[in-house]
């Protein structure tokens, strides 16, 4: 049975998503009143989410001033994604024996949806489908500790650097990235562990 998320957990995920898509910028103050109006809920679950986000290193709680989106240096982000790449490659290696035609179909659909997002220059939609693509194999790797580590690193090192870039350059880059997704799916279908894991490591550290 799927776990029903609490209001504070939903607020937590909402704020992370807003950072990811560039609606909230690094060092920007979180406006609690705006969140109450946007989400239509009371202050308590919002405060609980903000405190947890600060505890997790995503926000900074500045005494008597409020909560701010914590900035991340380019070096720290590059280092984190290099680690994520290696962990994700291992997750894919574990997942390959469990891949079914249904998983292949879902991954192919995610690639097509990313193509559509690129065509429409829809950044938020692209991000959602890219997450879906990687989650398909991550969730069947069979190692919960590994899944937790990857998600934790991704959550604490939210990649927002693409969002503020030139739109044409941004989506041209995403075309390259999505071709990698397509090639990766070919390797997965062929059960080519060596090339699949090498590509996924490269994928996470692509320079923009």
List keywords for this structure.
Arc Repressor Mutant, subunit A, 2 domains, mainly alpha, 208 residues, Four Helix Bundle (Hemerythrin (Met), subunit A), 9 helices, single chain, two-stranded antiparallel sheet, globular
Q: Which percent bin holds the helix content?
A: 55-70%
β content, as a range? under 5%
Q: What is the number of helices?
A: 9
Instruction: State the name of the first-level CATH class of the largest domain.
Output: Mainly Alpha
Stated plainly, the CATH topology of the largest domain is called Four Helix Bundle (Hemerythrin (Met), subunit A)
Distance between the termini: 40 Å
- The class by helix and strand makeup works out as mainly alpha
CATH architecture of the largest domain: Up-down Bundle
**Spatial strand arrangement across the major sheet:** 1-2
Average pLDDT rating: 90
Summarize the structure.
The chain has nine helices and two strands, in the order H-H-H-E-E-H-H-H-H-H-H. The protein has 208 residues and is mainly alpha-helical.
Description:
The chain has 2 domains: 7-69, Winged helix-like DNA-binding domain superfamily/Winged helix DNA-binding domain (Arc Repressor Mutant, subunit A); 74-204, GntR ligand-binding domain-like (Four Helix Bundle (Hemerythrin (Met), subunit A)), CATH 1.20.120.530. A hairpin with a 3-residue loop joins strand 1 (59-62) and strand 2. The longest helix has 23 residues, at 167-189. 68% of the residues lie in helices and 4% in strands. Helix 4 packs antiparallel against helix 7 (144-156) and helix 8 runs antiparallel to helix 9 (193-204). It has helices spanning 7-20, 32-39, 43-55, 74-95, 101-120, 123-138, 144-156, 167-189, 193-204; strands spanning 59-62, 66-69. 24% of the residues are buried. With 208 residues, the protein is mainly alpha-helical.
């Amino acid at each position: 049975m799927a776990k029903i998320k609490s209001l504070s957990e939903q607020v937590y995920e909402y704020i992370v998503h807003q950072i990811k898509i560039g609606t909230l910028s690094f060092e920007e103050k979180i406006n609690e009143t705006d969140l109450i109006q946007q989400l239509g809920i009371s202050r308590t679950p919002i405060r609980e989410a903000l405190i947890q986000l600060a505890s997790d290193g995503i926000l900074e709680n500045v005494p008597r001033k409020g909560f701010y989106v914590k900035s991340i240096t380019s070096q720290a982000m590059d280092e984190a994604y290099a680690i994520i790449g290696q962990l994700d490659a291992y997750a894919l290696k574990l997942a390959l024996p469990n891949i079914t035609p249904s998983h292949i179909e879902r991954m192919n659909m995610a690639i097509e949806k990313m193509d559509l997002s690129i065509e429409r220059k829809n950044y938020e939609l692209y991000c959602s489908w890219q997450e879906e693509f990687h989650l398909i194999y991550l969730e069947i790797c069979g190692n919960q500790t590994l899944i937790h580590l990857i998600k934790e690193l991704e959550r604490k090192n939210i990649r927002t650097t693409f969002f503020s870039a030139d739109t044409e350059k941004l989506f041209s880059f995403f075309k390259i990235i999505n071709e990698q997704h397509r090639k990766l799916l070919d390797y997965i279908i062929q059960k080519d562990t060596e090339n699949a894991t090498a590509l996924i490591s490269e994928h996470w550290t692509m320079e923009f």
